[in-house]
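Let us work through a complete example step by step.
Step 1: write down the sequence.
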Amino acid sequence: MRYRTHLATTVAISLPLMVTSDSLSVESLSFVALGAVFPDIDEPHSYIGRRMIGISNSMKVVFGHRGLTHSLVGLFAAIFIFHLGSTTFGLPLELIYWFAFGYFAHLLQDSFSKKGIAWLQPFSKKRFQSGFRLIYYTTGGIIETLLFVIAILFLIQEMLQLNLSDFSFKYMNQFLH
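Step 2: predict the structure and record it as tokens.
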């Protein structure tokens, strides 16, 4: 799945949760978005991989694409690293939870790809395809494009329904200053 589809679907799912839990902020959206693209750090040609090329190349050599970063162990390792950041730099735990939500959403979305993912790496390389090989997408294919369009339509509907125009202007102004 392309980064834009990961971002659109993850934000479409998390936005109502953020609103109902009163945790909608630029920071929480940023961390859920970071989590949504983070597992692809093991692919140098990915959105995040191109921005962290040295780390990405190393990760791909050591683990391969859709290796450890696309597993529950990778998720817990990333949460642990961010938790260290929480205790060291005072990063709010709530932001780590949103990062973890985005990361898990990425894994779940990739599990519906044609190849699935190995949830239990490094303990097992067995790949699981959540759609039972009946429901799946291929990266860049028509189904993924359809998912992206549907997620964007949901986001537009959510923003209109939740009257997020006030949020947008308030936090964009806060972000710029």
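Step 3: interpret the result. Residues 26 and 172 are 8 Å apart (CA to CA).
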